[in-house]
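Why should sequence recovery work at all? Because a backbone constrains its sequence more than one might expect. Tight turns favour small or flexible residues, buried strands favour hydrophobic ones, and helices have their own preferences. The token representation captures these environments compactly. In the example below, the structure is given first.
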């Protein structure tokens, strides 16, 4: 708990000590900024039997919360639709996924930064909210406060938005001693009728100091730590992906991507389009990871140009950034970052990826002013 999002935590703890905990929060901010972790920690202190600022971590209540097995704690997250399309609230998870979901929750209990992702899940199911409604109004003799954690809350609105509308009814008539905590990276996709009934808590990205300490506990080489911290951009999920790679692998990947963006060679473009069209289908997470590396490189190069320090300026990537900045003087760096995000959005819109990737290359070259 200590060491990340201290200002956010102070605000949450103050509402607890003043006995002013609302019926609903919405935690929003960049991906990997610790929103889910803090939601679990907050649930813990609201139910701790020996309360202090961070929870005692020793009482039976704290231990059960940390194991995600407390009777006052309910987790809701995206699940695949049951294969039989049953409308029964009892069929939340297909039998083939029960073991996997149990395993993912257990992993989350060991590492609160772990992201629960069930393959084939692209929305929060109406059945999850119906199942919640069945139990939430039942009287309980449990002490403490009942907490409903809804991860990836923007996915309530996917499809016909039935889950969002069902949740809205619960928020309009919330049970006593109950708080909903909606967690989202994309608050703009959450219905305004839902956000208006929640107290909004905005999370900034994680401090570089926290990410630095996280990497330092795993890597002894300070040069490599600076490299990985710079590419993490305050995102703990990104940090956990980066550490799976060797430093040189990432350097080569970034340099190869930049080389393609600066090239007029049609065969290089064709290979790029083919490779990344396939990657977007076969491994969406890796596709997005590559785009994020590209975005961070351009952001860091822009900082170098305007004399704002960045961890990547202490690494071997700096020389390539300097060469780029010397060769191309009128680069629209913000426009490039915007185009990277636009390409990510193309995936959610089911656009034809070969065309989207070709258009992306053309637009990037215009932003760089390549003649």
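From this structural description, the recovered sequence reads:
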């Amino acid at each position: 708990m200590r060491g990340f999002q201290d200002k956010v935590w102070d605000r949450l703890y103050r509402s607890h000590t003043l006995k002013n905990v609302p019926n609903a929060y919405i935690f929003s901010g960049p991906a990997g900024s610790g929103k889910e972790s803090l939601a679990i920690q907050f649930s813990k202190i609201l139910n701790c039997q020996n309360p202090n600022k961070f929870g005692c971590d020793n009482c039976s209540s704290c231990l059960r919360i940390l194991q995600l097995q407390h009777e006052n704690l309910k987790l809701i997250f995206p699940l695949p639709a049951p294969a039989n399309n049953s409308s029964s609230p009892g069929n939340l998870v297909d039998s083939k996924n029960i073991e996997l979901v149990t395993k993912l929750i257990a992993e989350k209990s060991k590492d609160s930064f772990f992201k629960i992702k069930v393959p084939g899940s692209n929305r929060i199911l109406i059945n999850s909210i119906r199942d919640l409604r069945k139990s939430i109004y039942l009287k309980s003799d449990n002490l403490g406060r009942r907490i409903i954690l809804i991860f990836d809350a923007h996915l309530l609105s996917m499809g016909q938005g039935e889950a969002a509308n069902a949740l809205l009814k619960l928020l309009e008539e919330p049970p006593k001693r109950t708080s909903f905590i909606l967690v989202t990276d994309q608050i703009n996709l959450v219905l305004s009728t839902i956000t208006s009934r929640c107290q909004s808590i905005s999370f900034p990205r994680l401090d570089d100091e926290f990410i630095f300490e996280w990497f330092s506990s795993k890597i002894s080489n300070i040069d490599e730590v600076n490299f990985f911290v710079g590419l993490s951009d305050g995102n703990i999920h990104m940090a956990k992906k980066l550490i799976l790679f060797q430093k040189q692998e990432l350097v080569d990947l970034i340099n190869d991507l930049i080389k393609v963006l600066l090239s007029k060679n049609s065969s290089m473009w064709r290979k790029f389009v083919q490779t990344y069209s396939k990657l977007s289908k076969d491994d969406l997470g890796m596709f997005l990871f590559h785009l994020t590396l590209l975005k961070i490189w351009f952001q860091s190069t822009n900082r170098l140009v305007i004399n704002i320090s960045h961890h990547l300026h202490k690494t071997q990537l700096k020389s390539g950034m300097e060469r780029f900045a010397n060769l191309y003087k009128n680069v629209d760096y913000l426009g490039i970052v915007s185009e990277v995000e636009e390409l990510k959005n193309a995936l959610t819109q089911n656009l034809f990826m070969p065309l989207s990737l070709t258009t992306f290359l053309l637009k990037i070259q215009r932003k760089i002013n390549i003649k």
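A few observations help interpret the result. The longest strand covers residues 178-184.
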